Amino acid sequence: METVTIRELRQSWPAVEKRLASAGELIVTRDGQAVAVLNKPRQVTSQSPKKRLDAETHMKMLSKVWGGKPPG
Predict the structure, then answer these.
(1) 38 near 25, Cβ under 8 Å?
(2) What is residue 69's DSSP assignment?
(3) What one-character DSSP code corresponds to residue 64?
(4) From residue 47, how far is each of 9, 27, 55 by CA, in Å?
(5) pTM of the model
(6) Which run of H or of E encompasses 33?
(7) What's the gap between Cα 11 and its chain centre?
């Protein structure tokens, strides 16, 4: 398995990112000791993208939960 130092990671991320893409996994070391493992992200397949709450819907939900009174 390939290794990369923390210094390399900080100073030359584009090169490390290319190595990660080809190797699939890199061990990050500090003073010769392994401190972390970098992996390529898993492919996430979602059926539909999650929608953010719009302000109006959020206020209706808060009003229902708190009954029109301020929280606390």
Answers:
(1) yes
(2) S
(3) H
(4) 34, 33, 25
(5) 0.57
(6) strand 33-39
(7) 20
